[in-house]
């Protein structure tokens, strides 16, 4: 295994935490730990920003509406705050900005289980939702008719 941060065993780097991998989860963990004053040493089997990881690609989606369970929503609110912080730190603006806020779209009959779950989530967590009847939907989203 190779250190990717310029340390080798002779440097005598005194780490509080060693993080193996520099993908999404490891980078986030290393960032948060370092934010809390921990000395973090990271190891990556490839070079930084390599294209062999799950994180590779031009875009990622995150959504607030997790009908799977309301417990996810506070975690997601925190995740959105951290994305905003990351964007602020990056100082990228316009189309280069890191985070683009859009709405999410769920389509189905009102009795569809997932839409019912979303409805109860909406009520319990105060998420903003708009409902469209089929006729209005066709006008608002003509490409999805
Ligand atoms: C095509 C695709 C699209 C996706 N879209 C989304 C999305 O829109 N939204 C979303 O939330 N999630 C999405 N995901 C999932 C998300 O990318 C992964 O959940 C996330 O990247 C996982 O993070 P990770 O750190 O566990 O793994 P990775 O990001 O893959 O990072 C693991 C790192 O550890 C390194 N490593 C592994 N073993 C060792 C070792 N022994 N020694 C040293 N280094 C090692 C690897 O080289 C790699 O760099 C998508 C995944 C894929 C594949």
Task: Characterise the protein shown here.
It is a single chain. By secondary structure, the chain is mostly helical. Helix content is 35%, strand content 6%. It has four helices and two strands; from the N terminus they run βαβααα. The protein has a two-stranded parallel sheet. The model is unreliable at 1-6 (pLDDT under 50). InterPro entries: FAD-dep_OxRdtase, FAD/NAD-bd_sf, MTOX.
Small molecules bound in the structure, each named once:
flavin-adenine dinucleotide
Spell out the helices and strands N to C: EHEHHH
Gap from first CA to last CA:
53 Å
Regions with little confidence, pLDDT below 50 for 5+ residues? 1-6
Number of strand segments = 2
Main sheet overview = 2 strands, parallel
Strand share of the residues? 5-15%
Radius of gyration: 21 Å
Helical proportion?
25-40%
Average pLDDT rating: 85
Please identify the structural class as seen in this structure. mainly alpha
The number of helices is 4
The rough form would be described as elongated
Strand order of the largest sheet: 1-2
């Amino acid at each position: 295994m190779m250190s990717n941060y310029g340390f080798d065993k002779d440097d005598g780097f005194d780490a509080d935490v060693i993080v193996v991998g520099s993908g999404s989860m490891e980078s986030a963990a290393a960032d948060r730990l370092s934010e809390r004053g921990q000395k973090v040493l990271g190891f990556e089997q490839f070079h930084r920003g390599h294209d062999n990881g799950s994180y590779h690609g031009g875009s990622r989606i995150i959504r607030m509406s997790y009908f799977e369970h309301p417990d996810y929503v506070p975690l997601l609110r925190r995740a959105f705050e951290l994305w905003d912080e990351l964007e602020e730190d990056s100082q990228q603006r316009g189309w280069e900005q890191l985070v683009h806020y859009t709405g999410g779209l769920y389509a189905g009959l009102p009795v569809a289980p997932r839409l019912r779950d979303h409805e109860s989530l909406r009520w319990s967590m105060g998420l903003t939702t708009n409902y469209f009847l089929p006729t209005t939907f066709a006008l608002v989203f003509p490409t999805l008719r």
